[in-house]
UniProtKB/TrEMBL annotation:
GO terms for biological process: thiamine diphosphate biosynthetic process; thiamine metabolic process. This is Thiamine pyrophosphokinase. It comes from Aegilops tauschii subsp. strangulata. Catalyzes the phosphorylation of thiamine to thiamine pyrophosphate (TPP). TPP is an active cofactor for enzymes involved in glycolysis and energy production. Plant leaves require high levels of TPP for photosynthesis and carbohydrate metabolism. Residues 8-30 have a biased composition (Low complexity). The lineage of its organism: Eukaryota, Viridiplantae, Streptophyta, Embryophyta, Tracheophyta.
Length: 281
């Protein structure tokens, strides 16, 4: 029939893409620290490293920091932890807070971290890595390289990286951070601010995004940052894409709304997914 979209022969030669699932369950509060996972739970366990950049700490920074397996500050990000963690935990002794929220490493150019902050953490055993000779990569790039070179445990197959302070502030920094998502497209990296969560959906997979309604949504977007997409298809959104082309100068899916618990996305291009975070998160 004339309405046939893909010939059976063409469909047969297209292998189905493997599915990648995504979830923001790491943002869910829990009253007690998670028990050490065992067996099948260990495979699905939330396991992540945190990177703090030189922007105001999001309000959920203490929660994410406490559950992280590795904590790395990019240069002036160390100032933010030193100054900001006590502010986010009013009523606690600032000195105790600083000892408790000690970075495992400070990595970068070392042109923004205050000398006394560097000294303070160094005396507590934080690893200081001065990468100032490398002017070609951003501090976030250096931190991601550091984590992939120094993974926190024996099994890091499920490890992902949460980046705090990657958004807001200077636009060239924001774009540099988005570029890091594309540079490390095989590593799961999530950029977080008080308002948004952002990650890459590589075209090598079909994607299943599990929406945690208590902490995120409903506003979301799908943006072809690196290259135009000639075909993207979604389910679970108010305005779904159906073999739709997207490019700068043409259509982008911004100000969309999540309608279902699971959103699916397939595309012939790498897409940036972004979703709003709820104010009380
Ligand atoms: C997708 O759109 C393109 C361009 O409009 C068209 O050639 C193709 O047949 C469509 N594919 C499907 C599966 O609808």
């Amino acid at each position: 029939p004339l309405t046939s979209r893909v010939s059976p022969a063409a469909a047969a030669t297209m292998p189905p893409l493997p599915t990648m699932t995504h979830s923001s369950s790491f943002l869910l509060p829990s009253s007690s620290p998670p028990a050490p996972p065992t067996g099948a739970d260990a495979e699905n366990a939330v396991s992540y490293a945190v990177v703090v950049l030189n922007q105001r700490l999001p309000r959920f920074a203490p929660l994410l920091w406490t559950r992280a397996r590795l904590r790395v500050c990019a240069d002036g990000g160390a100032n933010r932890v030193f100054d900001g963690m006590p502010d986010l935990l009013p009523g606690e002794d600032p000195d105790e807070v600083r000892v408790r929220y000690k970075p495992d490493a400070i990595e970068g150019d070392m042109d923004s971290v205050r000398p006394e902050v560097k000294e303070y953490y160094s005396s507590l055993g934080t690893q200081i890595i001065d990468d100032s000779p490398d002017q070609d990569t951003t501090d976030l790039n250096k931190c991601i390289s550091f984590i992939t070179r120094n993974p926190p445990g024996p099994d890091n197959s499920n490890l992902f990286i949460l980046v705090l302070g990657a958004l807001g502030g200077r636009f060239d920094h924001e774009m540099g951070n988005i570029n890091v998502l594309h540079r490390f497209s095989n590593t799961r990296i999530i950029l977080l601010s008080d308002d948004s969560s952002i990650f890459l959906l590589p075209k090598t997979h079909s994607h299943e995004i599990h929406i945690e309604r208590s902490v995120e949504g409903p506003h979301c977007g799908l943006i072809p940052m690196g290259a135009p997409s000639s075909s993207s298809t979604t389910t679970g959104l108010r305005w779904n894409l159906d073999n739709t082309s997207m490019n700068f100068g043409g259509l982008l899916s911004t100000s969309n709304i999540v309608e279902e618990e699971i959103v699916t996305v397939t595309s012939d291009s790498d897409l940036i997914w972004t979703i709003s975070l709820r104010k009380h998160t």
